[in-house]
Amino acid sequence: MRNCPMTLTVSQAARLTGDFRRAKGLKAGDFDGRGSGELPKLRYYARHLLELAHELGTMVEADPRLYWAHLQVEELGERLMANSKGAAAEEEALDSLADSLYVLLGEADARRMPIEEAFKEVHRSNMTKQAAGPGDPRLAKKGPGYCKPDLAAVLKRARDQACVDCGYPVDPDRLRASCCRCVDCEEREEQARFEQARAIHDIERG
Length: 206
Ligand SMILES: [Zn+2]
Known about the structure:
By secondary structure, the chain is mostly helical. The chain has helices spanning 10-23, 39-58, 66-83, 90-110, 115-126, 151-160, 172-176, 183-205. Helix 2 runs antiparallel to helix 3 (66-83). The longest helix has 23 residues, at 183-205. It is extended, with a radius of gyration of 23 Å. The protein binds zinc ion (ZN). The site of zinc ion has 8 residues, from helix 8. The site of zinc ion (ZN) has 8 residues, from helix 8.
């Protein structure tokens, strides 16, 4: 099993999901669509998702919580539509995957959620699931070795280490030095102090 690096690149995260899929004997799926009688059904569901996305988009003003759902459902609809075209629409599918990831990371960032730490914890837990057996392609039977992800602990760690101004994680070295603000906020404050001092200096000089 590949060790989880301290800091994950997006590619490393993707490869970890591949490790999980192979270790548990899960199917990668069939994306070329040849010989499939289900294509009209895919397009039917894709259209439904896009209609739902449109409906959610009209309600974003009334309840901003629907904003991220609107974006995510729209991307899912576009991906299903691209997948319904088979391998020819590979670029469209990639575009939708990248947009989906962007939206997911965007919501995590907007809510100051520790998405990378949470991903690692979910991967750790997933690897303890029992391998896929006959009649259980979605690993519903977790098996005796299963260990649930502890996202409460992940969240608590992140909140304990969050910058008091912006909520982003504070560098561990700074925490050790009892500083509860991130470098960016510290620099912004420094800059503001400098500009204030210069303004006072300019007034004094007339
Ligand atoms: Zn900050």
